[in-house]
Specification:
The complex is a heterodimer of chains A (about 775) and B (about 100). In chain A, a hairpin with a 2-residue loop joins β2 and β3. Chain A is built from 31 helices and eleven strands. In chain A, strands 1-2-3 form a three-stranded mixed beta sheet. In chain A, about 65% of the residues lie in helices and about 5% in strands. Chain A has three domains: about 575 residues, no CATH class; about 80 residues, no CATH class; about 100 residues, no CATH class. In chain A, α5 packs antiparallel against α6. Chain B is mostly helical. Chain B has a single domain, classed as Helix Hairpins. Helix content of chain B is about 75%, strand content about 0%. In chain B, α1 runs antiparallel to α2 and α2 runs antiparallel to α3. Chain B starts with 5 loop residues before the first helix and ends in a 13-residue tail after the last helix. Classes of the chains: A mainly alpha (about 775), B mainly alpha (about 100). Chains A and B meet through α31 of A and α1 of B.
Chain lengths: ~775, ~100
C-alpha cells in the first residue's frame, strides 16, 4: 500500500495513446445482432441454424481478437501510459456539456472487455448446443450479440453518457432474454420485474450523475500563482474570465514538473479521464472543493456516491433491489451465465471501481457500499441453503458473490473487488453452464430433488462443476480463494471506515469481515450441497416423472440423462481451466513478495488512495487459514448431510426447524414485502390517481368541453344565419340579375342591329344637342 | 341643266344607305339582308367617289371604291356560303329563326 500511496502523490494527467481500431470491438457484435435480427429468420429457413450461429459466434471471435490486439498494445506500453483512446465524433454539445462518441481502454476496462468478449464467446459456443431445439434460434443469437454490444459500450465508453447508454442497453437485453420464452406468462413477468427493478436503480444512477455534474460546475479562476481557485460568486468570476479554465504547464508551478506540456481541464465534465485528472491532481483544488461541498447538511460526495451505488444496487442485485435476479433465471441458461453471472450484474462493481477516485473522497459512501455488500452476501447465502431449484441456488450465490465484490470496492480494495469479479466470471459461468448441461441432460428438469447420481452419467459436467465449487468455496487450489481472501483481508485491515449519518465508525471493517467469513462458510455449504444433491447418489428422476412435466415425453427422449454434446463440454472445460488459472493473477504479496499481477496491472486505473492498517505476514497467513477453514467447514457439513442422499438428518432438521425453514425457503418474504408495500402502494396510488382522473380531471375536462360546445353552437348560429345569409344574398342577386339580363340576349342578329341603329341615331342626336 | 353639286350625291347616297339599313333590319330573308348590305356598301362607294371628285381631287376615292367593290364581292361569296349552310341545317333561311348562337 505504501507503493500505491507513493505513486498517488506523483499523479499527473493521464497520457493517452490513439488507437483507431477500438470501435471495432463493439462494432462486430452490433453487426452480428443487426444481421441476425433483420435477416436471421430467412437465413435460418434457407441455410439452416449453422449460418445463424456462425454469424453470432464469428462476431464474438472477431471482437475478441480485436480486444486481444488492444491488450497486446497496452502491454507494450509502460504502466503510466496504458490508456488507449479512440474518439469517433462529437455527439452533441450543450452549454458546458460535451459528449463524444469515444472509446477508451485502460487496464480496468481492458480487463472487463477481455472477460466480456472471451466468456461471451464461449457462452455463444455453448448456446449452439443448448439452444439447438429452439425454433427462434436466430432471435436468441441476435439478442446475445446485442447484449455484448451494449456491455462493451458500458465498459469501453469514455464518458458517462456512453456508459449510461450501455447500462440501459444491457438492461433491455436482459429483459428481452429473460422473457425469451415470452409465451410463458411467468417468464414474461420475470422479464418485466427485472426491467422495472432496474429502473429504480437507474434513477439513482442518473440522479448521482446530475449531482456530480452540478457539483463540478461553478466558477474557477486562475490565481497569479497558477493555482485554480473556486469562486463562490460566479458573477465576479465571469467578470474576470471564462468559467472553464485551462491549466497550462507553465502556470502550474512546482507540483507539475514531471508532466510538462499537458493540461488539465477543470469544470463539469462527463468524460471519465477529465474527471479523473481534475480530481486526482490535488493542486487543481477540485477534490478539496468537492469534499467541502454540502447539500442539505450532508456531504455532497457522500450523497453522489450513495446515489451511484443505488444504480449499482439495481444492476448488481444488492439488497433490497436483489429480487429480480432469482426470477431472472426464467431465461435460458446461457443467458443466466453470461448476463446474470459473468458480465451485466458486475456492471455495478465496475462502475464503483471506475469511479474509485470519487468514492475514495467520500468514506461514508464507501462504508455504505461495503456494508450493503456484506449484508447482501450474508442474506443471499442463507437463502441459498434451502433452495431446490439448481438455478435458484446459483442465482442467490451470484447475489451473494456480488456482495463480496462490493465489500472489496467498498473498503477501498478496488483491485480485489475487480479480481473477484474476474474469478467469479469464470467459476460462476462454469457453474451456470454446468447446471445448463445438467438441465439439458435431465430434459429441462431443474429441481435437484429429481436429479442425483449424475456424476457417473455426465463425468465432464461433474468434474467442471466440482472445480468451480472449489473455486467459489475458497480452496487454495482454485482462483476464488485468492480474490475472496484478499478482499476480506482488506476489509479487516480497513480501520478508517465511516457510515452515512454516523460518521467515522470503528470496527466496521472487522464487522464486515465477520459477516463476509460467515457468508463464505455458507457459500461453501450450499454449493457443495447442490453438487452432492445433483451428482452423487442414485438418479431420482424416474420416480417423479409423471408429475406434470408431461411435455418431456413429447420430445421422444429416453428417461436416462446423458452427457451433453462436445460444444457444451468443451466450453465447460475451457471455463473451468480459467477458473483455476485465474489464481495466477492474484497470488498474494505474503506468498510471492511482490504485488499480485492483477493489482499491478490495474494500478493506473485505480488512483484512489486508501489507507490500510499494516499487519505482519503471520497474521495474514492466519486469516488465510481461517478463510480456507470456512470453506472446509461448509464442505464437511454439506458432505455429511447430502452426500449420496443417505443422511436422514436434513429431513429431521427440517421437521425440527420447520418455521424458520419456511421463512428462509420463501426468501424471507421479501417478494411478499414488496407485494405488500411497493406494489400495493403503487396500486393504491394508481387507484387514487384514477379517482382524481375520473372525478376531478374528467369533470374539468367535461366542463371545458361543455363551455366550448356552447361557444361553438353560438358561433355555428352566427355562421348559419349571418354569414351564410350574406353569401346567399350575393349569390341570389347575381342569379336573378342574370335571369333578367339573359332576355336581352336573343341571338337574332336583327335585334342587335336595331340596337346598333338606335345607338347610332342617339349619338348623332346627342352630337347635335351637346353642340 | 342645273349644276350637279356634292349635295346631290350625298342625298342619293343617304337615301341608298337608308334603304339598305331598312332592308337589313326589316327583311327576314337572309338573301334580302345580304342585298341590303350591298346597298349600304354602294352608298359608301358613292360617297367615296363624290368626295374624291369634289373635295380631295385625284383618284384616291375611286381606288378606294374599287377595293370596296372587291371586298363586297368576297363578302357576298362568304355570306351566300353561310346562308347555304344555314339552309342545309334548318331547311330555311329565315333570320329570325337562326338563333343557335343564343344558347
Amino acid at each position: 500500500m505504501e507503493h500505491a500511496a507513493h505513486a498517488a502523490s506523483h499523479l499527473g494527467p493521464l497520457a493517452t495513446q490513439a488507437a483507431s481500431y477500438l470501435w471495432l470491438i463493439p462494432f462486430f457484435p452490433l453487426v452480428g445482432a443487426v444481421i441476425n435480427a433483420t435477416m436471421g429468420a430467412r437465413l435460418q429457413r434457407r441455410f439452416g441454424k449453422n449460418l445463424v450461429h456462425v454469424i453470432g459466434v464469428g462476431a464474438m471471435a472477431l471482437s475478441f481478437t480485436t480486444a486481444c490486439v488492444a491488450f497486446l498494445t497496452l502491454l507494450g506500453l509502460d504502466g503510466e501510459h496504458r490508456f488507449l483512446q479512440d474518439t469517433l465524433w462529437n455527439v452533441f454539445n450543450a452549454g458546458k456539456l460535451s459528449v463524444d462518441l469515444g472509446f477508451a481502454l485502460d487496464p480496468l476496462s481492458m480487463m472487463m472487455t477481455l472477460i466480456i468478449t472471451f466468456i461471451g464467446m464461449l457462452i455463444h459456443v455453448f448456446s449452439i448446443g443448448y439452444m439447438a431445439d429452439e425454433p427462434s434460434y436466430w432471435r436468441f443469437f441476435a439478442y446475445l450479440n446485442l447484449f455484448v454490444f451494449s456491455m462493451l459500450l458500458l465498459v469501453m465508453g469514455d464518458n458517462f453518457v456512453l456508459m449510461f447508454f450501455g447500462w440501459e442497453g444491457v438492461g433491455l437485453c436482459s429483459y428481452l432474454l429473460i422473457a425469451f420464452w415470452y409465451t410463458d406468462s411467468q417468464k414474461a413477468a420475470a422479464g418485466m420485474k427485472a426491467f422495472i427493478t432496474n429502473r429504480f436503480g437507474d434513477f439513482g444512477f442518473i440522479l448521482g450523475l446530475f449531482l456530480l455534474f452540478w457539483a463540478l460546475g461553478g466558477a474557477w479562476q486562475t490565481a497569479p500563482d497558477g493555482k485554480l481557485t473556486y469562486v463562490e460568486d460566479a458573477q465576479a468570476a465571469n467578470a474576470h474570465g471564462e468559467q472553464r479554465a485551462l491549466l497550462d504547464a507553465d502556470h502550474r508551478g512546482k507540483a507539475w514538473d514531471h508532466s510538462e506540456g499537458s493540461h488539465v481541464s477543470v469544470g463539469p465534465t462527463l468524460n471519465f479521464r477529465e474527471l479523473r485528472d481534475q480530481i486526482v491532481i490535488t493542486s487543481t483544488g477540485v477534490a478539496a472543493k468537492l469534499k467541502s461541498q454540502k447539500m442539505f447538511g450532508f456531504g455532497l460526495l457522500a450523497v453522489v456516491g450513495i446515489l451511484f451505488f443505488v444504480g449499482a444496487m439495481g444492476k448488481s442485485a444488492q439488497l433490497p433491489l436483489h429480487v429480480w435476479l432469482p426470477d431472472a433465471m426464467a431465461g435460458p441458461t446461457p443467458v443466466s451465465a453470461l448476463i446474470h453471472a459473468a458480465t451485466m450484474v458486475t456492471a455495478g462493481v465496475y462502475m464503483v471501481a471506475r469511479l474509485n477516485f470519487v468514492f475514495a473522497l467520500a468514506p461514508a459512501a464507501m462504508g455504505w457500499v461495503a456494508f450493503i455488500g456484506a449484508a447482501t452476501a450474508l442474506f443471499a447465502a442463507s437463502i441459498g441453503f434451502f433452495q431446490y431449484d439448481i438455478k435458484k441456488v446459483l442465482a442467490y450465490s451470484t447475489v451473494s458473490q456480488l456482495g463480496f465484490m462490493f465489500i472489496g470496492v467498498g473498503v477501498g480494495a478496488y483491485w480485489a473487488g475487480a479480481y473477484h469479479l474476474l474469478t467469479h466470471a469464470f467459476f460462476k459461468a462454469t457453474l451456470f453452464l454446468g447446471s445448463g448441461s445438467v438441465i439439458l441432460g435431465c430434459h429441462h428438469e431443474q429441481d435437484m430433488r429429481k436429479m442425483g447420481g449424475l456424476g457417473k452419467l455426465m463425468p465432464v459436467t461433474k468434474w467442471t462443476y466440482l472445480i468451480a465449487c472449489w473455486a467459489i468455496a475458497g480452496f487454495p487450489w482454485a482462483s476464488g480463494f485468492y480474490s475472496k481472501d484478499e478482499l476480506l483481508w482488506k476489509a479487516f485491515t480497513q480501520e478508517g471506515m465511516a457510515f452515512p449519518l454516523l460518521g467515522f465508525t470503528p470496527h466496521l471493517g472487522q464487522l464486515i469481515y465477520l459477516m463476509g467469513i460467515i457468508a463464505a462458510t455458507g457459500t461453501s455449504f450450499y454449493m457443495f450441497r447442490s453438487y452432492y444433491m445433483t451428482f452423487t447418489g442414485e438418479y431420482r428422476g424416474h420416480a417423479h416423472h409423471d408429475d406434470g412435466h408431461g411435455h418431456d415425453e413429447g420430445h421422444g427422449h429416453g428417461h436416462t440423462p446423458h452427457e451433453s454434446p462436445l460444444s457444451i463440454t468443451f466450453v465447460l472445460v475451457a471455463l473451468a481451466t480459467g477458473a483455476v488459472l485465474a489464481a495466477v493473477l492474484g497470488l498474494p504479496t505474503a506468498w510471492t513478495g511482490s504485488a499480485p499481477l492483477l493489482e499491478h496491472w490495474l494500478e493506473p486505473s485505480l488512483p484512489a488512495v486508501v489507507k490500510f492498517a499494516e499487519y505482519s505476514h503471520s497474521t495474514e497467513f492466519l486469516f488465510q487459514f481461517i478463510g480456507v477453514s470456512a470453506g472446509v467447514i461448509g464442505w464437511v457439513f454439506a458432505r455429511a448431510l447430502y452426500k449420496d442422499n443417505q443422511s436422514k438428518v436434513p429431513a429431521q432438521l427440517l421437521e425440527r426447524w420447520k418455521r424458520a425453514w419456511t421463512v428462509v425457503y420463501n426468501k424471507y418474504y421479501v417478494d411478499e414485502l414488496y407485494q405488500a408495500t411497493v406494489l400495493r402502494g403503487a396500486v393504491a396510488l394508481a387507484r387514487l390517481f384514477s379517482f382524481i382522473d375520473k372525478h376531478l380531471v374528467d369533470g374539468l375536462v367535461n366542463l371545458v368541453g361543455a363551455i366550448t360546445r356552447v361557444f361553438a353552437e353560438l358561433d355555428g348560429a352566427i355562421d348559419r344565419y349571418l354569414v351564410d345569409g350574406l353569401v346567399n344574398l350575393v349569390a341570389n342577386s347575381t342569379l336573378s340579375a342574370g335571369a333578367i339580363l339573359r332576355r336581352i340576349q336573343t341571338g337574332r342578329i336583327q335585334t342587335y342591329l336595331y340596337g346598333a341603329l338606335v345607338g347610332a341615331i342617339a349619338i348623332v342626336f346627342l352630337n347635335f344637342l351637346l353642340k | 341643266m342645273p349644276h350637279l353639286t356634292l349635295n346631290h350625291f350625298l342625298v342619293v347616297s343617304a337615301l341608298l344607305f337608308g334603304f339598305g339599313i331598312l332592308a337589313v333590319v326589316t327583311r327576314r330573308n337572309a338573301v334580302a339582308v345580304l342585298m341590303g348590305i350591298e346597298l349600304i356598301l354602294n352608298a359608301a362607294n358613292l360617297n367615296l367617289v363624290a368626295f374624291g371628285r369634289y373635295v380631295a381631287g385625284g383618284i384616291t376615292g375611286q381606288v378606294f371604291t374599287l377595293f370596296v367593290i372587291v371586298l363586297a364581292a368576297a363578302e357576298a361569296a362568304v355570306g351566300l356560303a353561310i346562308i347555304l349552310t344555314i339552309y342545309q341545317m334548318a331547311r330555311n333561311i329565315d333570320t329570325s329563326r337562326a338563333t343557335t348562337l343564343k344558347e
